[in-house]
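EI: anyone free to look at a 156-residue chain?
SC: sure, send it
EI:
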Amino acid sequence: MAQERRMQIGEVAERTGLSLRTIRHYEEVGLIVPSARSKGGFRLYTQADVSRLMVIRRMKPLDFSLEEMRDLLEITDRLGAQDDPPASVERERLRERLDAYRKVADARCETLRARLAMAEDFAATLRDRMNADARARSASGRATSGGPSAEALAHE
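SC: here you go
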């Protein structure tokens, strides 16, 4: 079996869009552990580590706390355990906890959608205001010059 490719932190940062500092912080708080270290002590990560960091990155916009992230990752790690899979009672309890997080994520997504709609409405209001101002300035320019400008005619 071929050894899995390992990446240094710079490549992982590039792949995930996270800063080196953020990745190191996630290690300090126990969200991620590098799969290995090089002979020189550099952190080495696998594709599974990158996938885990992407999960963490996707939790951030939903305002999950570090403790919630840690708990959620522990749940998914336990559910995915191959060497010591959870018994049916534990699996059901873990699935219930996971479903509770899913409901929280769904609710937070809905809140973000509502906030985005308000922000888009505000941006449209600003565009309308700018367009109205441009039309008023154009009309004002026609009134003082005795006729429409070439630019105003092009927009009509």
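EI: The first helix runs from residue 9 to 16.
SC: 👍
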